[in-house]
Amino acid sequence: MGRIGRQTFQLATHNTQLKLPKLMELEFQDLPGKSQIWNNTTFAQYEDNAPIPRFNPSPTNVTFRRGETAILHCSIENLGTKTVMWRKASDPHPWTIGTYTYVKDSSVTVTHNEEANEWNLLIKNLEKRHGGVYVCQVSTRDRISRQVLLRITDNPVREKTKPSIQVSGKSYIEKGDPIKLVCNTTGSEYPPLDLDWFKDGNKINADSAKKIKIDKRHFPHANTLSSVLNITHSKMSDAGEYVCRSSNLEITSIKVHVLNEFSCCSEVLDSHFCFSYQRKLPFSPIDRNFLPVVNQKNLPEFIKSL
């Protein structure tokens, strides 16, 4: 459909199930030796009623030490069939397009996290020459873009920290109450690229119908990635072991108990006995007389406070 060079690509779709789009034009300068990877769908654009791509909040001013690995974040909603490109503002040539890398610098790569809609630029073994403004751009007619300023300091590289992972949250939840678990993982040189949640061996994905939400946030200066799992309305089936696993294969877990308001507490008490309780209501005299008999050291705090 077109040649690499200072040429104009005229791309269209022949999908008969879509409205005939307007012909799109995109210009790129010469990319020597790269013409073999181009085809007539690389920058295909559909001028339909698709939502307009938009950038999610992410750091636009980051500082790293020489020798470290920099991660420049770019998270985009409603990307559709469009393509994400990274380049340095001072360089008209694209450094990356999609998941392909074109710059002649082995320290530069791009990572794609489909779940978080992220297309992040990674630069390893940072040197002074890597400093500057970088552009994350979407292949729309308006070429919407976001700039990220990367500063490189001469301070010595920090001593590598040992990778770690921690999970926190309530272990005992009453049926119908929300479940909120927080997992923080720290890398030795830079934040892990991703965190996944599992329950009883099955991966958990965000699901609005099931009221499951997963929020992730990077803290580059602390080499930390945080993930918050929210289940709005807990059910008895939500009880079980929740595992948090980083892309560095660090793993931790927490066991969650979902209790009925008038349920038997034998599992909680670690005893052959059980009793009924009511939230916000005091124990009956019979229950209070019963309490010294059971092993109270395993009582959850919310039962002790009744």
Automatic annotation (TrEMBL):
> What residue range is the signal peptide?
none
Superkingdom as given in the UniProt entry = Eukaryota
Q: Which SMART domains match?
A: IG (SM00409), IGc2 (SM00408)
Recorded hits in Gene3D superfamilies, A to Z, give: Immunoglobulins
A single Gene Ontology CC annotation of this entry is: neuron projection membrane
Q: By its UniProt entry, which Pfam families does this protein fall under?
A: Ig_3
Output this protein's name.
Ig domain zig-8-like
